[in-house]
Amino acid sequence: MTQSNLNLSYYQTLVFDCDGVVLNSNKIKTQAFYEATKHLGHESAQALVDYHVQNGGISRYVKFEYFINEILKQALDQTILNDLLNRFSQAVKQGLMTCEVAEGLDQLKAKTPDANWLIVSGGDQTELKQVFTERGLDHYFEGGIFGSPDTKDTILAREIANGTITRPALFLGDSKYDYQAAETAGLDFIFLTQWTEVKDHQAWCQENYLKVYENLKGACL
To answer: Largest Cα–Cα distance in the chain?
Structure first.
């Protein structure tokens, strides 16, 4: 695990995860998975929460499909899936509108005036765009705000192909999946620890020789 100085001016593109990086919203999402499924039983709801925490950064669509197929042991039913997605969205929206925003966005923007900024999140894309617009954060991310139902791998590959992401590029994330997606896409990566829900992140970051910072403010100092 290293914390050597970043030469941010080196990068043409900065890709940000949302939950746990730009917004302090990981716990909001975790609680929302429980709220969306608790009517189907505490044990089932808790099993989904555990799966969610172990698979940070993956979209809600994948997680609720897993919940129906593997936890409830039912065939995928679109009516049930839509109901769970609606319950989750209602539980999470207010939290996203009021949760803490990461410090350091202005300083980071000042240090990377020529870089293209994007959000690439596991969160719902329509929901993300609405929240970022209403909270006055969308102007930072001129490259676009992207989310599910497309996966991060799909989004990164598409935006590289269409030229929105140009290398050298840096992905700032807080989950194992963020790192895997960055590796697959050929982007540099730093792991932010302040709000992560990866329980073994210290050992895991050391094993993978990752650059680690507490938060965006720390990364731009």
So the answer is: 51
* 109 and 53 within one domain: no
Distance, CA of 160 to CA of 141 (rounded, Å): 16
Do residues 211 and 191 touch, judged by C-beta distance below 8 A? yes
Same domain for 186 and 157?
A: yes
Query: Is the pLDDT at 221 greater than 80, yes or no?
Result: no
Question: Contact 9/64 with Cβ under 8 angstroms?
Answer: no
The closest alpha carbon to 188, from 129, 137, 115, 128, belongs to: 115
C-alpha torsion 28→196→213→172, nearest 10: -70
Residue pLDDT, tens place only, 29-51: 999 999 999 999 999 999 999 99
DSSP 100-130: PBPTTHHHHHHH-TTSEEEEEEEEEHHHHHH
Residue 9: pLDDT band with limits 50, 70, 90: confident
Question: What range does the domain containing 32 cover?
Answer: 27-98
Dump pLDDT digits (tens) for 133-166: 999 999 999 999 999 999 999 999 999 999 999 9
Question: pTM for the full model?
Answer: 0.87
Task: Please count the structural domains in the chain.
Answer: 2
